[in-house]
Design brief:
Strand order of the largest sheet: 1-2-3-4-6-5
Radius of gyration: 14 Å
Order of helices and strands: HEEEEEEHH
CATH class: Alpha Beta
Strand content: 25-35%
Number of helices: 3
CATH architecture: Alpha-Beta Complex
Largest sheet: 6 strands, antiparallel
C-alpha cells in the first residue's frame, strides 16, 4: 500500500515549525530535518530513525520496520502524530543526534 499525498501533506504541516522537507524515495517518502534523513513515511505511517536522542522521548512510539527486511524505527501512532509539539520535539531531537551528512563528491 502506497502512502497517500494527504498523509505526507499532514505530516509536513505538523512539522511546519521546523526546517523539514520530504522527498520521494523508493516509492515512498524520506523526511529530512536540517538536511538529515530523520525518518520515512511508508504505508501512511511515520517512522522516525533510531538515534541517540533521549529514549524517554520515544516512549509513545513502537518499534517496527518501515518496510519488510528493514531495521526497526520508531513507528509514530496516530495520537502521537496529532500532537504537533511532541512530534516537532521528537523530529528535531533526532536531527540533532544524527551526524551531519557527508558532502557529496562532485561529478566528473
Amino acid at each position: 500500500m502506497a502512502t497517500r499525498a494527504e498523509t505526507v501533506e499532514f505530516i509536513e504541516d505538523q512539522l511546519s515549525g521546523l526546517l523539514v522537507r520530504t522527498a520521494k524515495m523508493f516509492g515512498e517518502y524520506g523526511i529530512y530535518c536540517d538536511e538529515k534523513v530523520v525518518g520515512l513515511i511508508c504505508d501512511d505511517a511515520l517512522f522516525i530513525k533510531p538515534s541517540d536522542a533521549a529514549a524517554e522521548l520515544f516512549a509513545r512510539t513502537e518499534p517496527a520496520p518501515p518496510y519488510p527486511g528493514a531495521k526497526f524505527y520508531h513507528r509514530v501512532p496516530g495520537e502521537a502524530l496529532e500532537d504537533r509539539e511532541w512530534l516537532m520535539e521528537a523530529v528535531q531531537a533526532t536531527a540533532d543526534a544524527l551526524p551531519a551528512p557527508k558532502p557529496k563528491k562532485p561529478r566528473r
